[in-house]
Amino acid sequence: MATENWLNENLCSFDEKVRIERGPQIVELVCNDVNLSNAVTSPYYQDGARDATGKVIRPSKLPEEVAKKIDAPFGVVEEGEKMAVVDRRAKHAPFLWKVYQLQETGESDKDGNPISRFIKVDEVEGKEDALDRARTIYQGMQ
Amino acid sequence: MPFLRDADLTNLAGLAGQTGRRVDICYTQEPTTYTEATSTYSCGNKTGLTMSALADGDVDGRKTTVPAITDGSVTATQTAGWHALTDGSSVLHAANALASTQSVTSGNTFTLGAIDITLRDPA
Predict the structure, then answer these.
(1) How many CB pairs under 8 A join A and B?
(2) Quick one: pLDDT at residue B81?
(3) Is A50 helix (H, G, I), strand (E, B) or coil?
(4) Distance of residue B54 Cα from the nearest chain A Cα, in angstroms
(5) Residue B74 maps to a domain
(6) What does the pLDDT look like over A2-50, one tens digit per residue?
(7) A-chain residues near B107 (CB < 8 A)
(8) What is the DSSP string of A70-85?
(9) Is residue B67 part of a domain?
(10) Distance of alpha carbon B73 from its chain centroid, rounded?
(11) Which one of A50, A55, A66 makes the best mutation probe of the B interface by having the most chain B beta carbons within 10 Å?
């Protein structure tokens, strides 16, 4: 039986091998004036800023000299394309319980030791469903 | 800081002066939870930070400041695009995009300027 340790009301750890944590979803919205307005998305999603996956929002709307200096290794999202935003007020999608499992990633640290991370393996709306899912995953790790 | 936890917006004085804060630099996506900020998408961190006492904002309002970081530990070779402030145990206080993305190499150190968290006066 896992030791279920509630670190706060939104985060429960199962022996630090599995976690559930409640949080907002990243949603895709069409990039346009309406969806970039503060009434729809957070004020920091604006022209020249980055969306939730790192794409620069509408660099073509910026003055040319500014746009030329934009650093966009993750690409850009222009008018009419889909942009990713964190829906922190659940206006478009409900908060979910995200289920994370500690997994080796194939990466190594500077000493060559394998790196493990909590990788999201599921997300569900109900807390009890998340707990059930986490318990099942935890049991499978024993 | 674009994202700031509601409880910290309500009570900025409660965040000011807090010790044991942690800043992570993150890759792939803007972190939405504490777990994502400190594990799933973290490629470096600095622990043991102390928030400044509450002070006047630069223009108006009040602010608290995350101190500058000169010796953060890079834990994975990635392109960092965000940073996140947590309490180091379970709470995501704030998250923001870095001013510009940065390629980082595991084993190196990262630096980050001081970060003001300001509540402006009403318009």
Answers:
(1) 80
(2) 96
(3) strand
(4) 24
(5) yes
(6) 789 999 999 999 999 999 999 999 999 999 999 999 999 998 999 999 9
(7) 109-110
(8) ---TT-EE-TTSEEEE
(9) yes
(10) 14
(11) A50
pTM: 0.95
Please choose, from the candidates B89, B118, B122, B97, the residue with its C-alpha nearest in 3D space to the C-alpha of residue B8. Answer: B118
Contact in structure between B92 and B5 (CB atoms under 8 Å) = yes
For the segment B7-31, what is each residue's pLDDT rounded down to a tens digit?
Answer: 999 999 999 999 999 999 999 999 9
Q: Tell me what pLDDT residue B1 has.
A: 53
CA atoms of B42 and B44, how far apart (whole Å): 6
Q: What is the pLDDT of residues B30-71, one digit of tens each?
A: 999 999 999 999 999 999 999 999 999 999 999 999 999 999
Tokens representing residue A83 in the block: 């942009």
Residue A3 tokens read as 């030791």
Give the count of domains, chain B: 1
- Tell me how far apart the alpha carbons of residues B87 and B51 are, in angstroms, rounded to a whole number: 11
Contact across the interface for A7 and B32, Cβ inside 8 Å: no
Spatial CA neighbour of B31 closest among A28, A98, A39: A98
